Structure formats: structure tokens, C-alpha cells
UniProtKB/TrEMBL annotation:
Protein name per Swiss-Prot or TrEMBL: Spermidine synthase
Gene Ontology biological process terms, A to Z: methylation
Organism from which the protein derives: Stephania japonica
Signal sequence extent: none
Keywords in alphabetical order: Methyltransferase, Transferase
Length: 286
């Protein structure tokens, strides 16, 4: 195992070491920050209201994005140095929170809705992220299909955030093993994928399915019925973790070996420490 790498943070904060990633290109900075979710919420309400008037979503959908974005901000602590992709950039919620916590990162974001990008630049300051900050952090925005083979970079991504929904439902392509194998090929050595897998919804017309969900829910195993997690188990047997979104109903998945949760918790900003300790190994057989 490669020895822990010690680096200076890009903002005032403690100097830290981490053995979580055994790649010698590991990058880590731990700025002293606070969660920006609440202070940004007023802007998101205004933005979501504009989208709703134009027939492109609702305030509730934007709130859902804010919840998940906080989870994604923990990913940079356990991946190698390199660019991180956001597939499903939306209004830039995840990009804002990731760069708030890890200001030196290079982000590559894909979003198919050009109108959404235009409004995010106008209402949410997305354009500010597209300019390099003082420590080199920046977001490069791509308007197009996030699952297109062209959505990649030379050398691969250190991490990939996947947050792809249409009409409130996760894309059907994400329920296919082949999709995850292809996305895995876009990673560099020791890279990881973190995914918003959506929730679990029983078919109201199928009493047996409702009964099965109730039984699984009592055991805390309702995640087993998530179709995206099932597909990912097939693509990454023995190398997948899961958790329930903090404060929400969705499930998240993480590829790669199960991280040391105590070490991971020590590497993230304070408001994320408890969240990362909730990850569990996925034992679902493909």
C-alpha cells in the first residue's frame, strides 16, 4: 500500500494525511467551511419558480437536488487527483457544494437542458464557477448527453457523480449493467462513481409487491428493490456500497472497495462527517 500523502490545504485548515486512496496521485484539501445548502435555498426557490412557470420542473424537485448534492460533496476525499465529472449538472447545485468544500478541483459537468444552464447562469451564479478561482478550481459546462461516449476526458476521471433523472424518474439506461461497465471505463486508476439511485416505489396494483416491500422495510433492506442498485451490483460485484440519502428518501451507491468510514469522516467538512459513516457494503447478489 502506498504511504499516506501529506498535502497543504488550499484554504486555512488543518494539515491532514490520508491512506484512503492507494494511488500516488491522491489529492486532498480540507477547507474550514460551513454547509451552504440553507443559505442558497432562497436562490433555488426563485430559480425553481421560474422553471415551473416555463414548464420545466418544480420547487420540490430543486429541494431534492439540494439534499443529494451535499452527499456528492464527500466524494473528492476518497478519489485520486484529477477531474471529477458531474453527469446531470442541473442548475449546478452539486458543483457549487463540491467547490465550496474542495475549491481546487476541476469539474466537468454535463447537462442536456440548455435552457436550464442559461437560467442557472442568470439566477444561481453558475457562470462564476466557470471562471477559475484563486486556487485553480473551475467548472467546465458541456451541453449534451451525459451518457454519450464523447462525455469523457483524456486520462479518465478521478470520480464521476451521476444524478440523471427525467420527469422525476431515473433514466432507464441506469438500470442496465452495460451502462455501468461503460461508465467505469471512463475512470482513471482507483477512481470511483457515486450515484443518486432514486427511491423504491411499489406498484399500487400489485399487492404482493407491496407486501414484499413492507417486509423488507421492517428489516431495513428496502434498498434491495432499487433497480439501479441491482444493475450496479451486477457490474461491480463485491465493490459496491450503499446508503440512504440524509434527510431524504433516495438511495445512493458508491463503487470501489468499501472505504474506511472513520478515516473518510476525518477528511470531510464537519457537516458531512455523520453522513459518510452511514455507508454500508452492498451484499446483494447479481
Amino acid at each position: 500500500m502506498v504511504a499516506p500523502v501529506r498535502v497543504l490545504p488550499t484554504r486555512p485548515g488543518p494539515v491532514i494525511t490520508s491512506p484512503l486512496c492507494n494511488c500516488n496521485r491522491f489529492q486532498l484539501s480540507l477547507p474550514n467551511i460551513r454547509s451552504t445548502t440553507k443559505c442558497k435555498w432562497g436562490s433555488y426557490v426563485a430559480f425553481a419558480s421560474c422553471r415551473e412557470r416555463e414548464g420545466h420542473g418544480s420547487t420540490e424537485e430543486e429541494e431534492f437536488k439540494v439534499l443529494t448534492a451535499d452527499e456528492f460533496a464527500s466524494l473528492p476525499a476518497i478519489v485520486p487527483r484529477g477531474p471529477i465529472a458531474i453527469l446531470g449538472l442541473g442548475g449546478g447545485t452539486s458543483a457549487h457544494l463540491i467547490l465550496d468544500s474542495w475549491p481546487s478541483l476541476k469539474l466537468e459537468g454535463w447537462e442536456i437542458d440548455e435552457l436550464l444552464i442559461d437560467k442557472a447562469r442568470e439566477y444561481l451564479g453558475l457562470c462564476n464557477l466557470e471562471r477559475s478561482n484563486q486556487v485553480g478550481g473551475v467548472l467546465c459546462v458541456h451541453v449534451g448527453d451525459a451518457l454519450s461516449p464523447s462525455a469523457t476526458v483524456p486520462g479518465g476521471f478521478a470520480g464521476i457523480v451521476v444524478d440523471l433523472f427525467s420527469d422525476g424518474k431515473i433514466l432507464t439506461q441506469l438500470e442496465e449493467v452495460a451502462t455501468w461497465l461503460e461508465l467505469n471505463n471512463r475512470l482513471m486508476c482507483h477512481g470511483r462513481i457515486m450515484v443518486n439511485c432514486g427511491g423504491v416505489h411499489a406498484e399500487a396494483t400489485d399487492p404482493s409487491n407491496v407486501a414484499a416491500q413492507a417486509k423488507l422495510s421492517q428489516k431495513g433492506d428496502l434498498w434491495i428493490q432499487n433497480s439501479t442498485i441491482k444493475a450496479m451490483c451486477g457490474a461491480f460485484p463485491g465493490n459496491l456500497s450503499w446508503k440512504k440519502e440524509a434527510g431524504g428518501e433516495n438511495y445512493l451507491a458508491l463503487t470501489g472497495p468499501m472505504p474506511d468510514l472513520d478515516l473518510w469522516s476525518n477528511l470531510v467538512p464537519d457537516h458531512l462527517k455523520l453522513n459518510v459513516k452511514q455507508w454500508k457494503p452492498c451484499t446483494l447478489m447479481a
